[in-house]
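Morning F.,

Quick status update on the modeling queue. The single chain you submitted on Monday has been processed. Sequence for confirmation:
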Amino acid sequence: MEMTPEIKQERWKVLWAAQRSQRYHARRNVFYDRWNKATAFVSIVGGSSVIASLGQMVPTWIALTAAFVVVCMSGVDLVAGTGEMARKHNDLRRRYCELEADIAAELAPTEAAIATWKVKRLTIESDEPATYVALNILCENELARAYGHLATAKPHSLPWYVRFTAQLSHWENV
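Structure tokens below.
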């Protein structure tokens, strides 16, 4: 049975959203995971500097700076819960992958199948933290490039500082 144009379009919309969300959550997972590892690294190096300063091997200002950096990064790590957030985004990415697999497995989708996919997508979205809009736009552009859509459509343009801080600010007005 061949898909009607309407069914094909609705299937494409759900598939596109699932693939964009996979990319988004993969990026958030990597960001939080790297922050967590950087904090651990800085803690080790900073702690070593403090220990070394006790033996007067380094100037006091280096030890104080190292201690300050360790405290700041550890505080951000604790408040943001980077390890937990990395796991959360990895779980969301995995759930979107499962949705994509469901879509790919259905060779001749019906309106009921599409409705089921939409419900599953909305259920996943209800578990998502607030979206980082600029990051979502970057993922949209990346997916458009992957499908070759940029040959027919211009990517969303973001200023360099928005792209640079896409993981740090929600940029709700971009």
